[in-house]
Design a protein that fits this description.
- The protein is α/β, with parallel strands linked by helices.
- The protein has two domains: 199 residues, Rossmann fold; 126 residues, Response regulator (Rossmann fold), CATH 3.40.50.2300.
- The chain has twelve helices and 16 strands.
- It has a seven-stranded mixed sheet with strand order 2-1-3-4-5-14-13, with helices on both faces. Strands 7-6-8-9-10-15-16 form a seven-stranded mixed sheet, sandwiched between helices.
- The longest helix is centred in the last third of the chain and has 21 residues.
- The N terminus is likely disordered.
Amino acid sequence: MSRLTRMAVLAGLALAAAAPTLAVADPIKIGVNQPLTGDVAASGNYVTDGAKIAADQINANGGVLGQQIELIIEDNKSNPTEAVAVAEKLIGSDEVPVMMGAWSSTFTLAVMPKLMEYGVPMLVETSSSDKITTQGNPWVFRISPTSAMEAKAFADQVGKFNIKKADFLVVNNDWGRGAAQQFGDMLKEHDVAVDEVETMDPAAQDMSAQLSKIKASDADTLFVTTGVEQLTLVLKQAKALGLDKQIITTGGSQAPDQLIEQAGSAADGSYHLLFFTPWFPEAAKNPDVAEKFVAEWKKRGYDFAGLTEGFRGYDGIMTIAAAIKAAGKAEPEAIRKAFWTVDVHGVNGDIKFTKQGPEGEESGQSLPNVYVVRIEGGKVVEPTL
């Protein structure tokens, strides 16, 4: 190496040493509090898969505020006490400025005092209890419908289903009891009598006693509210008992394809209220968004049955990202205020928040779309009523 070449190399090394190191911005953390194991694990994992699709899409398009987002995913084990522990970890240890969770109304209600205590907003993607947005918690923003909203949306269908008297079988928690109350009130307003109202523990696997009482009633329709795992058992046991009633499920967490696979012919003839119908994405409020989401879900090899839940995680993370962008910084109070300004074109429809709850302490509630499908001959079809 010549003397001039050596001098040039040394000069280059000196310049490199003197140049400032380009800092890579830390990612913006988003906490995800979901049931990944336990009684309702299927639903929690589907929601989480949808959240991952949203995060990857956001990051592939440059992230938010010039930073990538990072999902900090924790398992609440289908348990309200664990849901609170997860929230404590996400806020205290991981220092997330915003969360999504916690699937069940019972889990979400358990977590809500922590949002107030620490001043961290949470996007509620699934829970339907009316109490969530009426208790006066300004850190809560929900994109799923309340049981009252779902019942109101179904009210126009009551005559088409020719319902004269109804029974209820619901999971014994805030979600199930709230659904029975709201749908029961709606039916009575439409001159439909309500007879048996039976509950089942979230972990129960034998519902034959409740179903026997319901079989003995003279109601023509049975409304069922629970997660897909327990619903599968209900349908099988109802068929085994020869229960001959119109079955309609509420809550949007039924995964009809999973019911077809696991309950077989016992699922035939059942109707299901959903908030996304992936078999007919062209019928969605925003078909371009819905079709793109379904295509990516399939590309990843995720279980098609999970799409009826997975969209919740997708819409939730997209809405959180929009709030962070509108806030201009990843700080809890700024994000909370920015949630009131978002207008997101989601899979379910357009997401923007209206106020619910005591004046000055309102929670945010969007106005989701509700659909009805029927399982017929081992396939999901649009009902002809």
